Amino acid sequence: MNRQTTPNDMTTAATPMGTHHGYMPGFGNDFETEALDGALPQGMNSPQKCNYGLYGEQLSGTAFTAPSHQNERTWCYRIRPSVKHSHRYEKITLPYWKTAPHIPQDVTSLGQYRWDPIPHSEQKMTWLTGMRTMTTAGDVNTQIGMASHIYLVTDSMVDSYFYSADSEMLIVPQEGRLRFCTELGVINLAPQEIAIIPRGLVYRVEVLEGPARGFVCENYGQKFELPARGPIGANCMANRRDFKTPVAAFEDRETPSTVTIKWCGQFHETRIGHSPLDVVAWHGNYCPVKYDLTTYCPVGAVLFDHPDPSIFTVLTAPSGVEGTANIDFVLFRERWMVAENTFRPPWYHKNVMSELMGNIYGQYDAKPKGFIPGGMSLHNMMLPHGPDKNAFEGASNAELTAQKLDNTMSFMFETRFPQHLTEFAAKEAPLQDDYIDCWQSLEKKFDGTPGKK
Ligand SMILES: [Fe+2]
């Protein structure tokens, strides 16, 4: 258990929630943290009266009766209970943020697709208005599946807060820096890092350096967890200590504010007179987290062939079928290639899972051209894909010395469910019409001659 008592009352600072924040290491820990000394009850959760006149409140991330090794909840000690951060709801529209099931009738999702980076708009956009859904999968009403989004953010949310009852959000920045001011503390996020904001947690997003662009995986299902390493053992891949959860930080600010709630794919707004980010102390294991992707320790082939790309899984969200993820988050980063007598890039394949990829920076080895930073590609359920002609010829004829794949960081959101394009992805986003042609020039080499290579 971590104990953190750094004073962190930033209500008098010029910037709400201030700049004096810190993080506690670990993933799935039972953390405890207080921004004011003595705010956290000891030895019990619900004393008759809490210190400082705070209200005690539990945030349950799993069913009360979930097995203890999966059970997640956090006790919050706050200035007002959450019922005061909610009033009558009014439906609003965010037309570019779509939720499964969402299958536009005049869009063809069957195909291999690739997009250039979506350009920044001239318009001012916040975390809410700048979210652009590319694909959806599964069904939010049964809490399975996901959506992939691109965010384009120029402006901070001011006196405006948000939570998603539908999903946890896995955020993968590609450009710019953002600050997530959450009920449980502050996360600053830059490219090469990721963050997870749990379902139900209230937050606002500020722009530290803009414009900001990145990718989001909205997970409707069970939470992301670390994959079992199997025979790899206790170390490597993503290590628990490299995940960071913020210490408690609160604001005691009385100003007209709005809270937007995403619930079953619809957006609702409620008006309150103060900031809902008023948790002075908390303890528990249901909390936001960030992770530096450069601490991911890849494991791979050291003699010949290469394993399935699942070897590069950072986080996995189970679907209920063992070994079959609702979502895997997979990272393709710098690494050494040493395999002998081996075609080293990813092989040609078809997959029952559907694969959405994004490029954070650099050049991806199976697609030296066309898949560029900020860009995305989609290889949907049971659709063939693999190296383009240049990558195939290069890797087939390369001298197989030890080679460092450098300056490369791409990722995949891989789901067991087919992904459906939104109208935005099919009609407005910069889709590369000629992507399918990258395999066009692969020629037949076979002529029946034994030994021909
Ligand atoms: Fe693939």
UniProtKB/TrEMBL annotation:
One of its GO terms (biological process) is L-tyrosine catabolic process. It comes from the Bacteria. Its cofactor is Fe cation. One of its GO terms (molecular function) is metal ion binding. The active site is at 306 (proton acceptor). The keyword Metal-binding applies. Residues 295-446 form the Homogentisate 1,2-dioxygenase C-terminal domain. Keywords: Dioxygenase, Iron, Metal-binding, Oxidoreductase, Phenylalanine catabolism, Tyrosine catabolism. It is an enzyme of class 1 (oxidoreductase). Residues 23-293 form the Homogentisate 1,2-dioxygenase N-terminal domain. GO terms for cellular component: cytoplasm. It holds the Pfam family HgmA_C. Its EC number is 1.13.11.5. Fe cation binds at residues 349, 355, 385. Homogentisate binds at residues 364, 385. InterPro entries: HgmA_C (IPR046451), HgmA_N (IPR046452), Homogentis_dOase (IPR005708), RmlC-like_jellyroll (IPR014710), RmlC_Cupin_sf (IPR011051). Belongs to the homogentisate dioxygenase family. This is Homogentisate 1,2-dioxygenase. The lineage of its organism: Bacteria, Pseudomonadati, Pseudomonadota, Alphaproteobacteria, Rhodobacterales.
